[in-house]
Amino acid sequence: MILNGKELSEKRLAIVKSEIEKTDLKPCLATVIVGEDPASQLYVRMKHNACGKVGIRSVGVELPGDSMTEDVINAVEKLNKDPAVHGILVQLPLPRGIDTEKVIESVIPEKDVDGFHPLNNGRLFSGRPDFVPCTPGGIMTILREYEIDPAGKKAVVIGRSVDVGRPMAALLINADATVTVCHSKTQNLAEETSKADILISAIGRARFVGPEMVKKGAVVIDVGTNHDENGKLCGDVDFEKVEPIASAITPVPGGVGPMTIATLMENTLESARRHANL
Ligand SMILES: NC(=O)C1=CN([C@@H]2O[C@H](COP(=O)(O)OP(=O)(O)OC[C@H]3O[C@@H](n4cnc5c(N)ncnc54)[C@H](OP(=O)(O)O)[C@@H]3O)[C@@H](O)[C@H]2O)C=CC1
Ligand SMILES: Nc1nc(=O)c2c([nH]1)NC[C@@H]1CN(c3ccc(C(=O)N[C@@H](CCC(=O)O)C(=O)O)cc3)C=[N+]21
């Protein structure tokens, strides 16, 4: 079975849209982008487009690539204070030389719709999540909507980044899975991944996960957004070879990516609701 993230995201976006139409809420997402990385510009554009679709107002702050950490923090603090702004997203990665942690910590947790602030991280890891990072949050929505219950299952996450791998592991722990986290220092990676009932790959290497790494009947979630040697967009998983042995699998494109954006819209709506005490 192919887990259709694109279709599911359309459904979730339609819900966000109708929720906004039902209320007087005027949710607003602010994005901050530093420098001119074309991939970051593309992603931010996609986020603004999604806002437009569902009726979320969006404002974009663009700072030059040679900005200092303080410049970025000043821009964030303005947005923190602006009562019309409900969500703040600082597009990552930031240019070298900028202290990413400091910038992320400058976003007030109430507007941290990306779920990257250490307070929101801590809540998630304590089992009392508030704003959850959009990519792992979107993956949990896919699992829920397709009635794949992680409880009691063995889940293996490849990747331990703060934005994807770690929060993914925490969400799966909270959902009662038995979780293993693998990374570049893991020995016998294939041995670990072959035990997974649910395998989640967030490493950033084109078609790295082959059929020899996957147990028959496993659910395979591919977070990777990579370009192969021909410049073609592809995931971490060798889809052609793994799809026949998986019981369910997300494609790239059309899997996790669109759900990341849908979850961002949901978090922004939720923040606006709280602001209005609804
Ligand atoms: N679809 C979406 O919405 C999103 C997609 N992405 C994509 O997901 C991928 C991962 O992103 P992100 O987590 O930010 O990436 P990072 O580069 O921050 O982290 C990659 C992780 O993978 C591990 N890793 C790298 N190579 C190997 C290997 N050969 N074997 C085992 N582990 C390895 C690293 O280990 P170590 O810690 O030891 O270095 C690290 O923990 C990228 O392709 C990115 O583009 C990211 C965010 C959202
Ligand atoms: N503060 C911050 N928050 C993020 O959530 C964040 C970030 N920084 N930095 C970069 C990563 C990456 N990311 C993606 C979002 C959507 C797709 C997506 O929709 N992809 C489409 C394809 C898009 C294409 O055509 O290239 C798909 O998979 O179908 C991919 C990747 C969010 N990120």
Strand-helix topology:
Layout: H1 5-22, E1 28-34, H2 38-54, E2 57-63, H3 69-81, E3 87-90, H4 100-106, H5 118-125, H6 134-145, E4 154-158, H7 165-174, E5 178-182, H8 189-193, E6 198-201, E7 219-222, E8 226-227, E9 233-234, H9 239-242, E10 248-249, H10 256-275
Parallel strand pairs: 1-2, 1-3, 4-5, 4-6, 6-7, 7-10
Antiparallel strand pairs: 8-9
Helix pairs in contact: 1-10, 2-10, 3-4, 6-7, 6-10
Please explain how this structure is put together:
With 278 residues, the chain is α/β, with parallel strands linked by helices. It folds into 2 domains: 85 residues, Rossmann fold, CATH 3.40.50; 123 residues, Rossmann fold, CATH 3.40.50. The protein is 41% helix and 15% strand. The strands form 3 sheets. It has a 5-stranded parallel sheet. A 3-stranded parallel sheet has the order 2-1-3, sandwiched between helices. Strand 1, helix 2 and strand 2 form a beta-alpha-beta unit. The radius of gyration is 19 Å and the shape is globular. The model has no long low-confidence stretch (mean pLDDT 97).
Task: Compose a concise summary of this entry.
The chain is of the alpha/beta class and 278 residues long. The protein has helices spanning 5-22, 38-54, 69-81, 100-106, 118-125, 134-145, 165-174, 189-193, 239-242, 256-275, and strands at 28-34, 57-63, 87-90, 154-158, 178-182, 198-201, 219-222, 226-227, 233-234, 248-249.
